Amino acid sequence: MRYALQWLRSLLFIVLIYGAMLPYALAYLPWAIVSPRGATAAAHGWCGFVKFAARWLVGIRTEVRGTPPTGEVMIAAKHQSFLDIILIYSAVPRGKFIMKRELIWAPILGQYALRLGCVPVDRGKRGAAIKKMVADVAAGRALPGQLIIYPQGTRIPPGVKAPYKIGTGILYQELAQDCVPVACNVGLLWPKRGIYRKPGLATVEFLPPIPPGLPTAAFMKRLEDAVEGRSNALMAEAGFHPDEAAA
């Protein structure tokens, strides 16, 4: 009975937050048309609403640890579900994502993403995609913000291992900026797929920045060790031990 009630609350939560995209988009549309700051304000407002609704409807409390960056940096984050996107974006003043190109065709979301300065990438052709990503990011340097990339390329469920892709290392070399790793445990409560949302504390943590200048291989190892090690620790705090789950 308790599971069924939580499932119904989760369904209502999903309908509510996605349905709220339209009124937020329409309310901020005039400002968003004339300035990217309007699109940023709309996205921050919607993220705040999602965090409130998550706590109220399904019992997901949210926490941001560490120091979110405010300057020109690259953020390389663990990606477990849509919730880490929401928490990371709401914590920084001017986030912009490396995103799948097909998302630009998504109603509301796609057009606002372009106004936010997000960089669409075709992931079907790896070499060409990396070159295009680097060129697009370099061309967008005049638009201030924090570039957010997911080094594993997609959502990875808790306890599942997946490689870190070299595109993050190439961007690190090209941009010559600090890279801020981000760990999380949000997939324990808000899964990659499915309706059910589990009550608990969802955490993202901004870790100490990795300065520019490291060789690519050294950077990639340092990034993966930081993000995976701290994500595992956050999941362990919530009672989930990735090594035991994989055994």
Structural commentary:
This protein has helices at 2-19, 21-34, 36-58, 82-91, 109-116, 126-139, 167-175, 216-237, 242-246, and strands at 60-65, 73-77, 95-100, 119-121, 146-149, 179-184, 200-206. It is of the alpha/beta class and 247 residues long. The protein has one domain. Helix 2 (21-34) packs antiparallel against helix 3 and helix 7 (167-175) packs across helix 8 (216-237). The longest helix is centred in the N-terminal third of the chain and has 23 residues, at 36-58. The mean pLDDT is 89.
Features:
globular, alpha/beta, 247 residues
List the helices and strands and how they pair.
Elements: H1 2-19, H2 21-34, H3 36-58, E1 60-65, E2 73-77, H4 82-91, E3 95-100, H5 109-116, E4 119-121, H6 126-139, E5 146-149, H7 167-175, E6 179-184, E7 200-206, H8 216-237, H9 242-246
Parallel strand pairs: 1-7, 2-5, 2-6, 3-4, 3-5
Antiparallel strand pairs: 6-7
Put simply, the count of helices is 9
Major sheet size, sense and barrel closure = 7 strands, mixed
Q: What's the helix-strand series?
A: HHHEEHEHEHEHEEHH
Q: What would you report as the Rg, rounded to the nearest angstrom?
A: 18 Å
Oligomer: single chain
Indicate the structural class.
alpha/beta
The spatial strand order of the largest sheet comes to 1-7-6-2-5-3-4
Helix residue percentage: 40-55%
Tell me the domain tally.
Answer: 1
DSSP strand count: 7
Question: Hey, roughly how much beta strand do the residues contain?
Answer: 5-15%
Distance between the termini: 31 Å
Provide mean pLDDT, rounded.
89
Low-pLDDT regions: none
Shape: globular
